[in-house]
Amino acid sequence: MFRRVAVRSAQLSGRRLQSTVAVPGATQVEQSFIALPKEDQKKVITDLSEIMKQDWTKISMEDKRASPKSRTLTKEWQEESNRIAKEKKINPIHGISSEGYTGKGFVQSD
Question: What DSSP state is assigned to residue 20?
Fold first, then answer.
């Protein structure tokens, strides 16, 4: 009876009931990914790429949440961003549109 009251109360207030059991997984990886060394980051990306190749119906929800790669992280997207920045003359004094610029611009991919 108490559970029914708690569930009904949560429904009326718009809140979700949270389990007291901690579930390790992608949520912890999301928080600590930035702090990882570059080699470990690449390993995580490689592992997630392998997970994405599996049957999507058999992948856990945590893995599904962590797997999609943003299209803005592709080298082609970043190179196109460079082209647009030069075309629109973004940061013409010291940046990508400046005369004699030798940096990589927006390209971060290897």
Answer: S
Q: What is the pLDDT of residues 17-65, one digit of tens each?
A: 454 444 445 566 566 777 888 888 888 788 878 877 888 788 777 777 7
Residues 77 and 58 in one domain: no
First-residue to last-residue Cα distance in the chain: 59
pTM above the 0.70 mark?
no
Using an 8 Å Cβ cutoff, are 26 and 62 in contact?
A: yes
Q: Is residue 102 part of a domain?
A: yes
Q: Looking up tokens 């994405």, which residue turns up?
A: 52
Measured from the Cβ of residue 97, the count of other Cβ atoms closer than 10 Å reads 17
Instruction: Name the average pLDDT for the chain.
Output: 75
Task: List alpha helices for 14-110, DSSP H.
Answer: 26-32, 38-52, 61-66, 75-87
